[in-house]
User: Fold this.
Amino acid sequence: MNRGNHWISQIKRNYDLYLLLIPGLVFLAIFKYTPIYGLVIAFQDFNIFKGIGDSPWVGFKQFDRLFASDEFGNIMTNTLLISLYKIVILFPIPIIIAILLNEVGRMWFKRTIQTIIYLPHFLSWVIIAGLFVNIMSPQTGIVNGIISYFGGEPINFFMDNSYFRSIIVATAGWKEAGWNAIIFIAAIAGLDPELYEASKLDGASRIQQVFTITLPGIASTIVLMLILRIGSVLEAGTEQILLLYNPTVYETGDVIGTYIYRMGLTSMEYSFSTAVGLFESVIGFILVIGGNALAKRVTGKSIW
Assistant:
């Protein structure tokens, strides 16, 4: 049987499963692939009244403008630093949470802790931004209240460049660390319990079990999540930063996503903002491919 007939027989035999794929494929086609046509704006001097068809072509002019911009270096630095901080500081936290929860014996306590740490994920950034702005307010915030109680001067955290990146990383960790632990908890749950029993018979402690069974057992999951995280390194948390920053902290808080927002929607520089977005996507694609190749060479594990 040739390959074409094989595929046809597979579809006939599992037609109901293939039918379930249709809504997802339609969604991808409409909201993911169709908008790709709009990337041509990056190579035009786009005029909203003329449309894509009649707007003049300018080649790589928008990209030349981006790389020659005085703001480009600062924006790239901020984006890479914030993403690097999030990877180095926040990426290990869900793994640690998953390992600690796996060691909890009382199921009611384990479920209670899981519910508590998952909850922030379901709050929008609008709510979280308002919550932390109030908590860290220089006039009424509890943090500055504590500082003042011990004789310190109130700090306007959201207008101080020396604190802003730390606030971004801390709020992102508070919101997503618990939720991101789910996939690692599931990976640990899939490990063979007999491995732990055998290690106990050999006299291994809990700590030794973590380093000899748990971490090697979920290594492929860790690599997968790390590669995906590296691929989005230029997406430093646009929505979060937009809600927390202001012009006084552009020096340390303005990233590619917020720059696209300001140039595209505020200044109506549609072609320029599309070029910036395309640059971000291409770099992200290269990082995914490179991260996968590096992981395969170093650890022997990869996405494909």
The longest helix spans residues 270-299. The chain has a mean pLDDT of 87. The chain is about 70% helix and 0% strand. Residues 69-299 form a domain with the MetI-like fold fold (CATH 1.10.3720.10).
